[in-house]
Amino acid sequence: MESNCFVLLVEVVNYLVLIICVLVGVAFVTLLERKILGYIQIRKGPNKVGYMGLFQPFSDAVKLFSKEQTMPIMSNFIIYYFCPIFSLFLSLLVWSVLPYDVGLVSFNMSILFFFCCLGMGVYSVMVAGWASNCKYSLLGSLRSVAQTISYEVSLALILLSFIVLLGGFSLELFNKYQNYIWFMFLSLPLSLIWFASCLAETNRTPFDFAEGESELVSGFNTEYSSGGFALIFMAEYSSILFMSVLFVVVFLGSNPCSLVFYLKSMFLAFVFVWVRGTLPRLRYDKLMYLAWKSFLPVSINYLFFFIGVKSLCFVLNL
Amino acid sequence: MITMFYISTLTLLICYIVMTLASLISKKTIFDREKNSPYECGFDPKGSARFPFSLRFFLIAVIFLIFDVEITLLLPLASIFNITKVFSWLFTSTLFLIILLLGLYYEWFQGALEWSK
C-alpha cells in the first residue's frame, strides 16, 4: 500500500514537471514562430528584450495578463469565462499519453484517450464562439467546428490503420515496432495526409478559418481579452507542440527518452511555422473537398491495405 | 485510474488558478457600455448574434456523426485479431469497409459533400 502511494506521488509529480515544461515550451514556441516568420519575411523579428529577444515571451505574458478583462454584456458570462480554462485543460491533459518508459501514467489505451481529448476540444471552440454572442465569434466557431470534425475522421482512420497493423492501442507499441524502419518510409502518403490533417486540426495557417482575420475580425476569440485570450493561445500552441510530438512518435519512431526525439519534435514544430510562412489560406469549400473527397477515401483505402497486410503477415507466419 | 483522477484534477486546478490570477491582476478601467457591447467594427451591434446559419454546417455534422460511429465500430478490429480466425476477421472487416467506402462514394455521387452549388 505504501509503495502504491509512493508510485502515485512520483507519477503525479512527474506529470506536473512535464506540464510546467510544456508551458515553458509553449512560451518559447511563440518566440520561435515570431523569429522564423521574421526571417522568412526578411526582417529581424523580436531581438531587443533581454538577450537577443530571448525574454520576449515572458514580457508578452506579463503584458497579456495585466491587460483589462472585458465583460461583454450580451454574453453568457459564466460559459464565456470558463471556456478558455476548459480548452487549456484538455490540451494539457492530452500530454499524459506520452509513451515514457517509466514514471508517467502508462496507458494501454492511449490512442483512445487521445481521440477523446481531440473530440472534446471541438466543444470548447464551439461554446466559446457561441457564448460570447458576437457575430464574428459565432461564424468563426461554426467554421472551425465543421473543419475540425471533418479532419478528425481522416485522422482517426489513419491512426486506425497503424492500430490494426500493430494490434494494440498503446503508443509504446510504436516505439517497439519502428526499431528497424520508420512508418514514414512504410507509408509516406499517409504521413503527409496526417501532417495536413494535424494542421487543420490545430487551425494552422493554410486552414486557419477559425480566425480568418481578413473577413472575421479574429474568429471565435474576437471577444476575448487578457487572461481568456492568453489561455486560448496557450491551448492552441500546446496542441501544436503535442501534434508535432505525436507525429514523431507515430511516424519517425524514436524513444521519448532519447535526445533525437526532441530534435525531431523541434523540427516538426519548425515545419508548422514554416508552412505558416509559406502557404496562403485555402478557400473554405476547397478545404471541405480536401477532407471529404480526397483524404477520407485515401485513408479508408489504406486501412483496407493494412488489413490485408496484417492477415498476410499472419498467414505467412511472419 | 486513480492517478488519472489526480492528474486531471490538478490540471484543471492549474488552469483555473492561471485564469483567476489573470482576473485579479488585470488592470480594470472604467466599465463602459459601448466597450462591453459585442464587437462590430465600431458600429452599434445590429440585431442579435444568435442568427440562423447555413444548413451545410449541420449537414457536415450529420455526415461526421455517421463516420464517427463507424470508426467506433472499427476500433475493436485490432484487439479481436488474436481471438478470431484470421479468415473470418478478414472477411468481416472487408465487408464492413466496403460498405463504408461505397456509402462514402454514394454520398459523393448524390452531392451531399458539395459545399456550394
TrEMBL record, chain A:
BP terms from Gene Ontology: aerobic respiration
MF terms in GO: NADH dehydrogenase (ubiquinone) activity; NADH dehydrogenase activity
Membrane topology annotation: Multi-pass membrane protein
PROSITE patterns to which the protein is assigned, alphabetical: COMPLEX1_ND1_1, COMPLEX1_ND1_2
Primary site of residence: mitochondrion
Entry keyword set: Membrane, Mitochondrion, NAD, Transmembrane, Transmembrane helix, Transport, Ubiquinone
A GO CC term assigned to this protein in UniProt: mitochondrial inner membrane
Presence of keyword DNA repair: no
Pfam hit, one: NADHdh
EC identifiers of the protein: 7.1.1.2
Transmembrane intervals: 12-32, 77-98, 110-132, 153-174, 180-200, 229-253, 259-275, 287-309
Catalytic function, reaction form: a ubiquinone + NADH + 5 H(+)(in) = a ubiquinol + NAD(+) + 4 H(+)(out)
Subcellular location: Mitochondrion inner membrane; Mitochondrion membrane
Family, similarity comment: Belongs to the complex I subunit 1 family.
Function description: Core subunit of the mitochondrial membrane respiratory chain NADH dehydrogenase (Complex I) that is believed to belong to the minimal assembly required for catalysis. Complex I functions in the transfer of electrons from NADH to the respiratory chain. The immediate electron acceptor for the enzyme is believed to be ubiquinone.
Name of the featured protein: NADH-ubiquinone oxidoreductase chain 1
Species in which this protein is naturally found: Scylla paramamosain (Mud crab)
Gene (name only): ND1
TrEMBL record, chain B:
EC number: 7.1.1.2
Keywords per UniProt: Electron transport, Membrane, Mitochondrion, NAD, Respiratory chain, Translocase, Transmembrane, Transmembrane helix, Transport, Ubiquinone
Coiled-coil portions: none
Principal place of residence: membrane
Membrane-related topology note: Multi-pass membrane protein
Origin superkingdom: Eukaryota
Enzymatic reactions: a ubiquinone + NADH + 5 H(+)(in) = a ubiquinol + NAD(+) + 4 H(+)(out)
Pfam families: Oxidored_q4
Residue stretches spanning the membrane: 6-25, 57-81, 87-108
Subcellular location, record wording: Membrane; Mitochondrion membrane
Sample GO molecular function, one term: NADH dehydrogenase (ubiquinone) activity
GO cellular component terms given for this protein: mitochondrial membrane; NADH dehydrogenase complex
Assigned protein family: Belongs to the complex I subunit 3 family.
Function of the protein: Core subunit of the mitochondrial membrane respiratory chain NADH dehydrogenase (Complex I) which catalyzes electron transfer from NADH through the respiratory chain, using ubiquinone as an electron acceptor. Essential for the catalytic activity of complex I.
Protein name listed in UniProt: NADH-ubiquinone oxidoreductase chain 3
Organism of provenance: Scylla paramamosain (Mud crab)
